[in-house]
């Protein structure tokens, strides 16, 4: 589990982050765990939102504080994925979103990176004193469910909203 390292976004990663965004848009993929990168007009807009998300005092109304990390290859410093850790849950996150959202760029999938990213994210949760971590995925996202289970999560239940069924998994972290 040392192929990846979690790194906080910074202006010097602008090119890598925008290339990551481009790959997701070109492939029509959802960009989970990116703190709204898809909808940001510019890197600067996104980075400003990332900074505001870090603290309760500055997070946008209706959102919870969160920390977004880049999962970088330890071999060549390539941006493999992104993972967002929400510091607390609101009602929506409790039912559908969970503490953690993540994505891996399409060109790097099916290599175990998501499992490794989530394991690193759980270490960060422990550092934030989040001991009971909720991770969710769509029921039809078999790869994500496997990633979650590979990190010791137990399925609590499934929640339906319209045609969408969300699976809710919990991981309890040691103190």
From TrEMBL:
Gene3D superfamilies: 3.40.630.30. GO terms for molecular function: acyltransferase activity, transferring groups other than amino-acyl groups. Pfam families: Acetyltransf_3 (PF13302). SUPFAM superfamilies: Acyl-CoA N-acyltransferases (Nat). Residues 11-174 form the N-acetyltransferase domain. InterPro entries: Acyl_CoA_acyltransferase, GNAT_dom. It comes from the Bacteria. This is GCN5-related N-acetyltransferase.
């Amino acid at each position: 589990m040392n192929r990846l390292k979690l790194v906080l976004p910074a202006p010097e990663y602008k090119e890598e982050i925008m290339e990551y965004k481009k790959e997701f848009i070109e492939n029509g993929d959802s960009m989970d765990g990116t703190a709204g990168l898809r909808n940001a007009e510019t890197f600067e807009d996104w980075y400003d939102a990332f900074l505001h998300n870090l603290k309760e005092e500055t997070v946008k109304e209706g959102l919870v504080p969160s920390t977004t990390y880049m999962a970088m290859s330890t071999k060549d410093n390539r941006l493999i994925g992104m993972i967002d850790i929400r510091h607390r849950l609101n009602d929506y996150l409790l039912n559908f979103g969970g503490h953690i959202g993540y994505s891996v760029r399409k060109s790097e999938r099916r290599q175990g990176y998501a499992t490794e990213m989530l394991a690193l994210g759980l270490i960060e949760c422990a550092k934030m004193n989040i001991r009971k971590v909720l991770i969710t995925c769509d029921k039809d996202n078999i790869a994500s469910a496997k990633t979650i289970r590979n990190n010791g999560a137990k399925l609590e239940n499934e929640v339906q909203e319209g045609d969408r069924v969300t699976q809710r998994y919990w991981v309890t972290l040691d103190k």
